[in-house]
Design a protein that fits this description.
With 535 residues, the chain is an alpha/beta fold. The chain contains 15 helices and 28 strands.
């Protein structure tokens, strides 16, 4: 899609997902594979991916994904099987994603920091058929069962797991002729799990209808051009890295410079070398770039669009960025996995919106409701409900969660928001009990439940406290009558079960019961006060 194409997109009311009336772009591509094939045909020799010293053109990406798709078919995978991509940011990630599109698999990216118990839960819930893993995720794979129905695929040769090899599948698949399937735009394309406060993970079903609209929304609102260059520094397994960067840049026939993990000096070196034009980072990353004095306007004069999301941008960080990089447009994008990324965006050339997250995207619709589900007046706060073709149809094999989270075509975000007279949306509070640590979301209930399983723990509560770099960190309060309880032992036990960022930064042991309200529930407000005062 070129700049002239998207400016002429018309919008129509259409019926999707068994009765939802949705405002959609009328003359849109049918699916993301269609977008990819057009880019490959028009720009076969243009660079698509850069990773360390390796460069992949669009023609090569097309061939690699086709060969890998053939290898997957030969290994026994079939249409609508689920392929887990549990690897760090890499060329293999993108190859596996587009291979899935080509043969109708459902791609299921999973964060590389998950531990074995978390992976077992996700794999069981989704009923996965195959898993791609790398050196970082090898030890956590639940592959010890001799008769595991899951097909494991390693991206490297010397692995301790009895499995297929990525490169071998490429070679075998090169002999196969892939017949591209006709894709229905409402079919599941990607399955992304988002942890729920109930403890059971929920798989959000991303469709091609949603992926196409999210790409077009980013392209239109941020005025992205043909041949943009981005640095993929956030996890590709997260909806931001997946949709806002990988798919959006490929839709723009752009270049994706891949970082395995974010590192300040490397980011700046790559930005200068490749002439970075567009990036989307969490505010903590911008803060680190400033903290290390890594930003200079002369080195980064090509960087036009600095999008951010996942957490609020502190005013001090925003002002310092404007001072260091006066040509950089800072654009907040608010969304969620359930909305296939953006719900609101601060568009290019927008007057200073202050603490707003911007306007609702062109095909999006919202309403802000009170506890009785009645829409509130302009300027008043209430729960934000979101509707549009980018909103997922529901959760994977979880009718109960779908019924409780969706109503009349709207997804009930659980976020408290308001809308002013100019149409700016503001988020006043986040989902209940969620802690946002540098863009990584921690649900208190998950960690509290694990701590409660420990013998010495009688009560547990997890609350946030502010951090100038990460935005928030976590503080656990534990009631125990035992004098032998050890915070370090608690940390070690948690590290064996969950990703490291979920382990509390601080742990306070008390021999008094935690505060409770009149209904007998632990009340966290006084604990948050204590956590903030202890900084």
């Amino acid at each position: 899609m070129t700049k002239n194409n998207f400016m002429n997109l018309k919008k129509n009311i259409e019926i999707h997902f068994d009765g939802r009336e949705l405002l959609c772009f009328g003359n849109r591509p049918n699916d993301f594979l269609e977008i990819f094939k057009k880019v490959v045909k028009k720009h076969p020799t243009r660079i698509a991916l850069c990773f360390k010293k390796k460069i992949i053109t669009y023609k090569q990406l097309d061939e690699l994904s086709e060969n890998f798709a053939g290898g997957l078919l030969e290994s026994g995978l079939k249409e609508k099987n689920i392929l887990v991509i549990n690897i760090v940011n890499s060329i293999e990630f993108v190859v596996a994603l587009f291979a899935s599109f080509k043969i109708g698999l459902i791609a299921m990216p999973v964060g590389h920091r998950h531990k074995k118990e978390e992976l077992i839960s996700l794999y069981d819930d989704a009923v996965v058929h195959a898993v791609i893993f790398d050196k970082e995720t090898e030890k956590q794979q639940p592959s010890s069962n001799n008769k595991s129905p899951i097909l494991f695929i390693s991206t490297f040769d010397k692995t301790n797991i009895n499995c297929l090899k990525f490169n071998e599948l490429l070679r075998r698949g090169s002999k196969q002729k892939i017949v591209l399937k006709n894709i229905h735009e409402e079919e599941p394309a990607i399955l992304l799990y988002t942890s729920g406060t109930t403890g059971r993970p929920k798989g959000a079903v991303l469709t091609h209808l949603g992926l196409v609209h999210s790409f077009l929304h980013f392209q239109m609102e941020l005025k992205l051009q043909d041949g943009e260059c981005t640095i993929l520094a956030v996890p590709a397994s997260h909806v931001t890295g997946l949709v806002a960067q990988i798919l959006t840049l490929i839709g723009c026939a752009g270049k994706i410079v891949i970082m395995e993990h974010f590192e300040v000096q490397e980011f700046v070196i790559l930005a200068k070398k490749h002439r970075l034009t567009y990036a989307i980072l969490v505010p903590a990353m911008y803060a680190l770039l400033l903290h290390r004095n890594a930003l200079t306007a002369t080195d980064l004069k090509s960087w036009r669009v600095g999008a951010f999301g996942g957490a609020p941008m502190p005013d001090a960080v925003r002002k310092e960025l404007a001072s260091k990089l006066p040509l950089l447009s800072l654009n907040n994008a608010y969304g969620a996995t359930e909305t296939t990324s953006p719900t609101t965006i601060i568009p290019i050339d927008c007057n200073d919106p202050g603490d707003s997250v911007g306007f609702v995207v062109p095909c999006g619709k919202i309403k802000i409701v009170d506890e009785n589900k009645h829409e509130v007046k302009q300027g008043e706060a209430g729960e934000l409900w979101i509707k549009g073709p980018m909103v997922v149809p529901g959760y994977w094999k979880n009718e109960q969660a779908s019924e409780s989270s969706f109503e009349s075509g709207y997804w009930k975000s659980g976020d408290i928001a308001s809308k002013d007279e100019n149409g700016f949306i503001r988020i006043h509070d986040r989902k209940k009990d969620m802690i946002n640590r540098g863009g990584y979301k921690i649900f208190s209930a998950e960690i509290e439940n694990l701590m409660m399983l420990m013998d010495e723990v009688q009560e547990a509560a997890l609350v946030p406290y502010p951090c100038p770099i990460l935005g928030e960190r976590s503080h656990a309060f534990i009631f125990s009558s035992s004098n032998a309880i050890d915070p370090n032992k608690i940390r070690r036990e948690l590290l064996g079960k969950v990703a490291d960022y979920k382990v509390p930064d601080k742990i306070t042991i008390t021999h008094l019961p935690l505060p409770r309200n009149v209904n007998g529930k632990i009340t966290k407000a006084p604990l948050r006060d204590v956590a903030q005062k202890s900084i």
